[in-house]
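Work Package 4 report. The design task specified in the project plan requires that, given a folded chain encoded as structure tokens, an amino acid be chosen for each position. We show below one input record used in the internal validation round.
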């Protein structure tokens, strides 16, 4: 008889896990609450929605996330295959047309005879239904989040922010210029809005003075350092943005050959280039303030039509090293596995990778064999080290993390070539080690 697994949450982790299980011959009931109910950040009706940026970050294996892309492709990942097929130009980043991406993942799953997608909100943790995978993400609906809180003994959370998107025809092309940083990719994949020193300082002052979403909605907010709202960065110093998301290095204006003091980079949202994402411009300015400040202080956006405005959301995760076993099942409920951002991995790619990991753990459980963890020195292994606490410096608290080389075990001996040499050595070692784990 075909074995059946219940997955709750049809996002990055849930879809990847469903795919892995179905391809191994296990039937899957995938419960997704959209389109009947949605989190405050989800807007599409389909599965596997990218809620903020449309980028799966660097595709260069010299970066840990690029290495994770490579491993996932070799592992037959649905998310990576769909991303490759719906890719839009974005230098060496893997950015996608989010609607086509979501549609393609949905179609692939719907076409699989072992996958049944059920569109309903799950309000109670399923019991007595065999193995269950909970992949409801950082914005898990309230009823289920409350149950999980009881089970996981307290709930941790931080705040994550979304960047605005503008319509192509509303961008002033006499000001914006096309160029990728250091001419990567096709060389001109991004649009850039140049700011001189005075324009930049006026913008920073406006940001600091601008009205933010009322503090009581975001009591004592703790942000993820990799996704700070621009006004929080601006509070840390006047030039912080010019060294962060508005960094002009490698983005000299081809019309003058000069490097502006700062730039706003716009990344294509779709292949046709009808919409552009303000890269790194996540914010909790109120919506009227975003319209006013961005139009008044960002050159090229005076007539901007905003297709989406920035927002901030609470982001839920559990303390994985304490509440989860190495195979990502709950210590207090071994039939219930967790995957995705809920476990404290951060990012689309990491969430998909975690879904793959959890699916393999479920397959091991169904086959009655011990869990085969990924080799430690691979990107999959580094994520697993994060989840088990093996990568955490003693005495530090568990916080969500992207995949970074700091999570990998140290390289043996000295490596030539400085930082770049170490990254290459990590990638080469990972490529050797992942081999036996690929089934
Ligand atoms: C505001 C915000 C912005 C972010 N921006 C980025 C970014 O730019 N880049 C990046 O790499 N990562 C970003 N992240 C982080 C994270 O990687 C993504 O949220 C990612 O989608 C997490 O994958 P997941 O599968 O764990 O959850 P999701 O992709 O959110 O999937 C969970 C799914 O479960 C469904 N669901 C929830 N509760 C229930 C229920 N009770 N019953 C049935 N279905 C349910 C949801 O509708 C959703 O489809 C952001 C997160 C947030 C909150």
């Amino acid at each position: 008889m075909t074995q059946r697994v219940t997955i709750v949450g049809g996002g990055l982790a849930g879809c990847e896990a469903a795919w892995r299980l179905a391809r191994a011959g296990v039937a899957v009931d995938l419960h997704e609450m959209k389109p009947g109910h949605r989190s405050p950040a989800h807007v599409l009706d389909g599965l596997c929605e990218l809620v903020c940026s449309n980028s799966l970050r660097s595709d260069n294996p010299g970066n840990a996330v690029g290495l994770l892309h490579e491993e996932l492709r070799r592992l037959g990942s649905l998310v990576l295959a769909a991303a490759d097929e719906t890719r839009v130009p974005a230098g060496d980043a893997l950015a996608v047309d989010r609607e086509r991406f979501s549609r393609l993942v949905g179609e692939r799953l719907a076409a699989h005879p072992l996958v049944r997608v059920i569109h309903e909100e799950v309000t109670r943790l399923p019991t007595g239904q065999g193995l269950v995978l909970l992949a409801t993400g950082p914005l898990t609906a309230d009823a289920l989040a409350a149950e999980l809180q009881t089970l996981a003994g307290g709930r941790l959370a931080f705040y994550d922010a979304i960047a605005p998107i503008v319509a192509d025809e509303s961008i002033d092309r006499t000001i914006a210029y096309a160029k990728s940083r250091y001419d990567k990719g096709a060389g001109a994949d991004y649009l850039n809005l140049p700011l001189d020193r005075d324009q930049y300082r006026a913008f920073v002052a406006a940001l600091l003075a601008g009205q933010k979403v009322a503090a009581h909605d975001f009591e004592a907010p703790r942000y993820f350092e990799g996704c700070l709202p621009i006004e929080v960065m601006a509070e840390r110093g006047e030039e912080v943005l010019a060294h962060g998301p508005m960094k002009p290095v490698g983005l000299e204006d081809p019309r003058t050959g000069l490097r502006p003091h700062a730039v706003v980079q716009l990344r294509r949202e779709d292949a046709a280039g009808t919409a552009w994402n303000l890269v790194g411009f996540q914010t909790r300015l109120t919506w009227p303030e975003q319209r006013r400040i961005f139009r008044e202080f960002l050159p090229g956006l005076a007539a901007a039509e905003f297709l989406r405005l920035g927002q901030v959301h609470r982001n839920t995760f559990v303390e994985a090293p304490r509440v989860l076993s190495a195979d990502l099942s709950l210590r207090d409920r071994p039939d219930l596995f967790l995957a995705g951002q809920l476990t404290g991995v951060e990012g689309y790619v990491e969430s998909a990778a975690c879904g793959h990991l959890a699916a393999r753990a479920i397959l091991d459980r169904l086959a009655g064999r011990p869990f085969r963890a990924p080799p430690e020195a691979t990107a999959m292994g580094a994520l697993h080290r994060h989840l088990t606490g093996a990568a955490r410096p003693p005495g530090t608290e568990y916080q969500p993390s992207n995949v970074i080389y700091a999570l990998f075990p140290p390289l043996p001996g000295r490596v030539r070539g400085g930082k770049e040499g170490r990254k290459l050595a990590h990638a080469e070692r990972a490529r050797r080690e992942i081999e036996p784990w690929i089934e």
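Residues 8-14, 31-34, 39, 41-42, 51-53, 121-122, 135-141, 144, 160, 162, 313, 315, 340-342, 347-348, 351 surround flavin-adenine dinucleotide (CB under 6 Å). Validation will be extended to a larger panel in the next phase.
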